[in-house]
Every structure is written in structure tokens, then in C-alpha cells.
């Protein structure tokens, strides 16, 4: 933990209507949401939490999101600012597998992929209303085939085995429960937005711990209002997870970093700057 550093990798932005950002509350109107990934430089290796969206895929399939992402804002472009390449990443951890949080995974060909067991299962066989959000499966050809099987047969397929031979990474590890995956690097279960959603906490030697909400909480106003986004599997669980993150921040005296807060994001230190 002594030498741990955190870099926020700017991944561009998309547009969402206020009624979707603040479920049934609004007001309506376009909100441009920032997207970023979290790179953790740790004595055990390089960890990447979420990988943002793939611009070409998003523009083609979701033109109404008005995706904005320059070549510099891609995962390869952001890592290059730090003198790194995607091949240098040892672990990629996804809060969940919605397309705007895993679109850059396909670049991380040497990384061990880590996610919640329930998230991998949901990604392979989502509820009908979740299928669009789970649509970018470029990081895992085996999941693409599993989804085709579900569509063809009209029934759930067997959960994907983590050791499946055609997964793009050498290793694919699923976990459950709260986990300290490296000294001072914590995953906390925060389901509701999806079945296996994880939030992240990183302890540093020179500042308060940092909690990254993932999509459990879009922004500070969401937490203040206890108002979830319209995209969720279980709204009751979503509210419990919001309360849990607030309690964790109080317990660890941690600073909360929200996933899509345009006002706060403007003041976040972005790579090549760092937190340590």
C-alpha cells in the first residue's frame, strides 16, 4: 500500500436524458456524462477498474448517446500518456459488464479478468430488458456464442465456465462477496444496478481512501436525493447499495468518487496526474 498510486483515465463522454439519470425525477434534458477508468499501480501489479466504452461500437448501436471519444481517450491512448501499453496491465476488474464499462477490455490481452460470479452469469444470460446494456461482448467470444444459443433455443444456457478455452485472456477469475484482492484494494458488493455489481476502494499512504462507486451511484446529487438511475435490475437493492457506500465512506473516512458526475469530474485529477 505504501507505494500504491491511482490514475484516472479519461474515457470521453456520452449524453443521457435527466429522467434516465434521475429515475422518474428529472428534470428532463441532456446531461453529458463523463466516463473514466481507474488504473491502480500496486506492488502486486497493474490493476484496471472498468475500461469505458468503445466509440465505434457505441456510435453504431447507440447514436442517441452522442458518444464523444478522441483517440487519446481510448484505453491505449490513455495508457500511452503514462508510458504504458495495454499489454502491461496485469488485472482488469469490471464493476459490471454494461457496454460502457467493458468496451476497452478487448485491448487488455495479457490481463487476468476478474468479476463477480453473478455478473458473468447475467452477462451470458441477461433478463430481456438488460440485453441491450450487456450487448458489447467483444471481450469474450465464448459469451457471444452463449448468447446466440440462448436466442436460438429460447431457454437459459449453462453458466460460462471461467476456464473456457476461447476466452480472450489467459485467465478469467470470478469472485463473490467482499474481497481484498490486493493489499489495500477492496471490492465491495453493491448489487441492484446489476446482479453482480462491485464498487472499489483503494487505500493510499498519503490521502484518505478512495471509493469508486461504479454505477451503484451516478453522482453526488443522486446520493443526496437517494435517487437511482433508470437502468437497474433491482431498485430496492440499488437503494441498499447506495446506503452501503455511504456507510463504507463513513467507516473508512473515505472520499467517494462517482462514476458519471459532470460537475465533480471537472475537478478530478486525471492522468498523467495521480493520487498517492
SSE blueprint and pairings:
Blueprint: E1 5-17, H1 18-21, E2 30-42, E3 45-49, H2 55-61, H3 75-80, E4 91-93, H4 99-102, E5 112-116, H5 117-124, H6 141-153, E6 172-175, E7 179-182, E8 185-189, E9 198-202, E10 210-212, H7 220-225, H8 235-252, E11 255-257, H9 262-265
Parallel strand pairs: 3-4, 4-5, 5-6, 10-11
Antiparallel strand pairs: 1-2, 2-3, 7-8, 8-9, 9-10
Structural account:
With 276 residues, the protein is of the alpha/beta class. Helices cover 25% and strands 23% of the residues. It has 9 helices and 11 strands. The strands form 2 sheets. Strands 1-2-3-4-5-6 form a 6-stranded mixed sheet. Strands 7-8-9-10-11 form a 5-stranded mixed sheet, with helices on one face. A hairpin with a 2-residue loop joins strand 7 (179-182) and strand 8. The radius of gyration is 17 Å and the shape is globular. The termini are close together.
Amino acid at each position: 500500500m505504501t507505494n500504491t498510486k491511482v490514475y484516472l483515465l479519461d474515457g470521453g463522454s456520452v449524453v443521457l436524458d435527466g429522467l434516465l439519470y434521475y429515475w422518474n425525477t428529472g428534470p428532463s434534458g441532456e446531461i453529458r456524462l463523463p466516463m473514466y477508468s481507474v488504473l491502480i499501480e500496486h506492488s502486486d501489479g497493474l490493476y484496471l477498474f472498468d475500461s469505458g466504452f468503445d466509440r465505434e461500437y457505441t456510435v453504431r448501436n447507440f447514436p442517441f448517446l452522442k458518444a464523444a471519444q478522441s483517440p487519446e481517450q481510448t484505453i491505449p491512448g490513455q495508457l500511452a500518456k503514462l508510458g504504458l501499453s495495454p499489454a502491461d496491465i496485469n488485472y482488469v476488474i469490471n464493476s459490471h459488464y454494461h457496454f460502457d464499462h467493458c468496451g476497452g477490455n478487448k485491448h487488455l490481452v495479457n490481463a487476468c479478468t476478474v468479476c463477480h460470479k453473478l455478473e458473468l452469469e447475467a452477462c451470458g444470460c441477461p433478463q430481456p430488458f438488460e440485453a441491450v446494456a450487456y450487448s458489447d461482448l467483444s471481450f469474450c467470444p465464448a459469451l457471444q456464442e452463449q448468447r446466440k444459443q440462448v436466442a436460438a433455443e429460447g431457454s437459459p444456457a449453462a453458466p460460462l465456465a471461467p476456464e473456457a478455452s476461447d476466452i480472450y485472456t489467459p485467465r478469467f477469475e470470478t469472485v463473490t462477496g467482499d474481497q481484498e484482492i490486493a493489499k489495500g484494494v477492496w471490492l465491495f458488493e453493491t448489487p441492484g444496478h446489476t446482479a453482480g455489481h462491485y464498487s472499489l476502494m483503494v487505500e493510499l499512504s498519503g490521502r484518505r481512501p478512495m471509493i469508486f462507486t461504479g454505477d451503484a451511484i451516478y453522482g453526488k446529487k443522486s446520493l443526496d436525493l437517494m435517487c437511482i438511475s433508470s437502468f437497474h435490475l433491482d431498485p430496492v437493492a440499488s437503494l441498499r447499495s447506495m446506503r452501503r457506500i455511504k456507510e463504507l465512506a463513513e467507516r473508512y473516512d473515505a472520499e467517494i468518487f462517482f462514476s458519471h458526475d459532470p460537475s465533480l469530474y471537472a475537478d478530478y485529477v486525471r492522468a498523467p496526474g495521480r493520487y498517492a
